[in-house]
């Protein structure tokens, strides 16, 4: 993969050349990623005041990655102080703020550099502390063996939940993983579900820590997740699947292959032919190549031969469970026409294709409505 080096800051240049007159406006600093839109950040835990600080400081010439990490450090320190005082709810809020800031900071650093590793480990640590401070649920870190590796996630079970409580599995996408899906997970916990929020093969902690890669037969990794739920003594066997972005493709595929085990499936911002998203952004193609375990010189092979195999042709018709598809039209990555094929070919008697106008991705421009709609949709089918 192409190496991405740490950009020098104005302060770095002043230290290196103290007697020189430096025009700081000419020093390259990293900007806010275009894919981290205001709506996406708001949907997944960035505090509005932090967003305003990031925008102002980056516009003033500061480095985006460094600003986010500094704000994350401040939130994490505040959370730790509040926890020492016994203020558990406040500590949880600020640990989550920190985790969100650490998550978006290295978004455009594709390779797992020393800088990205440092920030990512801070994200995992602050998120772990936050998720265990909820009063309304039990949170358990999960490691599910798969092939020669293991998949990482969190099982969250409402307190006083019945032994047969239904479980919703959450699967993220190409660039957003389990920590980004946390607030959707909490919406489902509030609705009465247990949730298993997972990084599947090629995603998040499962990829970075365990070198477990994207697979064409992604349903095989998900088979291990389903087996884990079925063998878990504290939850029931009624299982729903929720996928965001690329995860929407993954869960639809899993619902097709394991129709007897999957009771409902929701795909938000997903696809029928996943390769469409790789046409518009070289960083997405590079990330997909790396997370598939391919070398940099295999990028063209990935584009033309490997990625096209991620499609639901001859598979979508096997889906029989209730199916919800939510999409934007227009969508900047995956056209509504693309995912409509999933809706048209699925054999489900109960299926809904809900389109939100606007040019955002994953319906982030209406995310409050979307997240509540999804929770209610699952509840109507699995809790009634």
From TrEMBL:
Keyword annotations from UniProtKB, A to Z: Hydrolase
Gene3D superfamilies named among the record's database cross-references: acylaminoacyl peptidase, alpha/beta hydrolase
Record protein name field: Alpha/beta hydrolase fold
InterPro entries linked: AB_hydrolase_fold, FrsA-like, FrsA_esterase
GO molecular function, a single term: hydrolase activity
Organism: Lucifera butyrica
């Amino acid at each position: 993969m192409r190496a991405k080096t740490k950009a020098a800051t104005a302060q770095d240049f002043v230290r290196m050349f103290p007697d020189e007159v430096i025009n700081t406006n000419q020093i390259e600093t990293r900007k806010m990623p275009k894919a981290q839109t205001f709506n996406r950040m708001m949907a997944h835990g960035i505090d509005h005041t932090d967003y305003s600080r990031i925008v102002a400081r980056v516009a003033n010439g500061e480095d985006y990655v460094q600003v986010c990490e500094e704000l994350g450090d401040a939130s994490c320190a505040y959370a730790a102080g509040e926890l020492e005082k016994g203020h558990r709810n406040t500590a949880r809020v600020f640990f989550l703020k920190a985790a969100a800031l650490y998550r978006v900071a290295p978004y455009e650093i594709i390779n797992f550099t020393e800088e990205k590793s440092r920030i990512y480990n801070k994200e995992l640590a602050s998120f772990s502390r936050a998720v265990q401070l909820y009063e309304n649920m039990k949170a358990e870190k999960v490691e599910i063996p798969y092939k020669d590796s293991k998949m990482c996630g969190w099982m969250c079970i409402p307190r006083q939940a019945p032994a047969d409580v239904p479980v919703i599995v959450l699967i993220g996408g190409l660039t957003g993983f389990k920590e980004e899906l946390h607030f959707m997970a909490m919406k489902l916990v509030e609705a009465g579900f247990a949730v298993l929020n997972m990084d599947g093969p090629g995603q998040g902690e499962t990829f970075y820590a365990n070198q477990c890669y994207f697979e064409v037969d992604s349903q095989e990794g998900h088979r291990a997740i389903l087996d884990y739920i079925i063998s878990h003594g504290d939850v029931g066997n009624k299982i729903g699947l929720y996928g965001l972005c690329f995860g929407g493709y993954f869960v639809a595929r899993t619902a097709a292959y394991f129709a007897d085990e999957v009771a409902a499936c929701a795909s938000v911002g997903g696809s029928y032919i996943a390769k469409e998203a790789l046409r518009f952004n070289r960083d997405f193609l590079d990330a997909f190549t790396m997370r598939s375990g391919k070398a940099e010189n295999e990028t063209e092979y990935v584009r033309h031969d490997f990625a096209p195999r991620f499609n639901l042709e001859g598979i979508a018709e096997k889906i029989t469970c209730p199916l919800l598809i939510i999409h934007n039209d227009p969508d900047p990555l995956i056209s509504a026409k693309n995912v409509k094929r999933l809706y048209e070919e699925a054999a489900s008697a109960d299926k809904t294709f809900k389109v939100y106008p606007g040019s955002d991705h994953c319906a982030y421009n209406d995310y409050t409505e979307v997240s509540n709609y999804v929770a209610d949709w699952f509840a109507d089918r699995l809790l009634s």
